[in-house]
Amino acid sequence: MIIYFQEDFYIYTIKEVAEKMDVSEHTIRFWAKSGFFPFIKRSQTNIRLFDDNDLEWVKIVKCLRVVGVESKAVKRYIDLCVIGDSTIEERYKIITDTKVKTQQQIKELMEQLILLEYKEKFYQNIINNNLEDTWNPMNKLSVEEKVVI
Amino acid sequence: MIIYFQEDFYIYTIKEVAEKMDVSEHTIRFWAKSGFFPFIKRSQTNIRLFDDNDLEWVKIVKCLRVVGVESKAVKRYIDLCVIGDSTIEERYKIITDTKVKTQQQIKELMEQLILLEYKEKFYQNIINNNLEDTWNPMNKLSVEEKVVI
DNA sequence: CAATTAATTGAGAGTAACTCTAATATTTTA
DNA sequence: TAAAATATTAGAGTTACTCTCAATTAATTG
Question: Touching check for A66 and chain B: CB below 8 Å?
Answer without folding.
Answer: yes
